[in-house]
Write a structure and sequence with these properties.
Shape: elongated
Number of helices: 8
Number of strands: 8
Number of domains: 2
Distance between the termini: 8 Å
CATH class of the largest domain: Alpha Beta
CATH architecture of the largest domain: 3-Layer(aba) Sandwich
CATH topology of the largest domain: Rossmann fold
Radius of gyration: 18 Å
Strand content: 15-25%
Strand order of the largest sheet: 2-1-3-4
Mean pLDDT: 95
Largest sheet: 4 strands, parallel
Length: 240
């Protein structure tokens, strides 16, 4: 069963109560369907929304291989516990890596920064604003993405987290100002509008970039969909 058409892709996101966040994730999954004609693509969630990933996995026939692709930007509790636990009882189900870090995500994040209004200043400082996790591997993943972006920006970049680990985003913004930054930009390292995007917006930065999966015209970002497809194909190759 190496053909993508014989493998179900379970697109597993966190889930949100924010209607605009749900719309972005749904549009992103629809873009994945467009990129993978003939492949069965099913949405699933680890929290807030239904269907739960464990229920979606349980409904996959044993003669139909399935790949769970976490629509999450780093490893952490949801990948190591929720998703891993959902896949564990089923030999025909495998979990892919989360979306980040990935070179295309760095491309998208830089695009979101370029979309901000205002003249770039020599004294600009960028805070990569991530959701955060108490799991150290999540920090490793975020820092890897930060290093990729840092190499391509003309301004200094530091990292702040919404929860789970320090420095918090607001503290990273304040530290940048204290170090002399004239303009601090919070680069939203979140997929879609929702709880964590709201925390980034409330960080006190002078400007905040849009979530990764949202283009300026309100469509789902096709490069993020391509990352999902990449993770799907990587997991299929590993399972062969």
């Amino acid at each position: 069963m190496s053909d993508a058409s014989a493998t179900t892709l379970i697109a597993c996101s966190h889930g949100t109560r924010f209607a605009d966040g749900r719309a972005v994730v749904s549009a992103l999954v629809a873009e994945v369907v467009r990129l993978l004609p003939g492949t069965r693509v099913l949405p699933a969630f680890v929290d807030v929304e239904e269907p739960a990933v464990a229920d979606v996995v349980a409904d996959v026939p044993v003669d139909q291989r399935a790949i769970i692709v976490p629509l999450l930007l780093s490893r952490g509790f949801h990948t190591s516990v929720d998703i891993a636990r959902a896949a564990a009882p089923y030999p025909h189900v495998r979990a892919a890596l989360p979306l980040g870090p990935h070179p295309l995500l760095a491309d998208v994040l830089i695009s979101r920064l370029a979309e901000l209004e205002g003249e770039p200043l020599r004294g600009t400082h960028v805070v990569l604003a991530a959701s955060g996790s108490a799991n150290p591997v999540a920090v490793t993943d975020v820092e890897a993405l930060a290093e990729t972006v840092r190499e391509r920006l003309p301004w200094p970049l530091t990292v702040g987290y919404a929860a789970g680990v320090t420095p918090h985003i607001a503290d990273a913004v304040a530290a940048a100002r204290a170090a002399g930054a004239e303009r601090v930009i919070a680069a939203s390292y979140v997929l879609a509008p929702g709880h964590f995007a709201s925390l980034v917006a409330a960080s006190g930065a002078d400007a905040v970039s849009a979530p990764l999966a949202l283009t300026p015209d309100g469509r789902a970002e096709p490069r993020v969909a391509r990352v999902i497809v990449d993770r799907f194909h990587e997991a299929m190759r590993a399972a062969s």
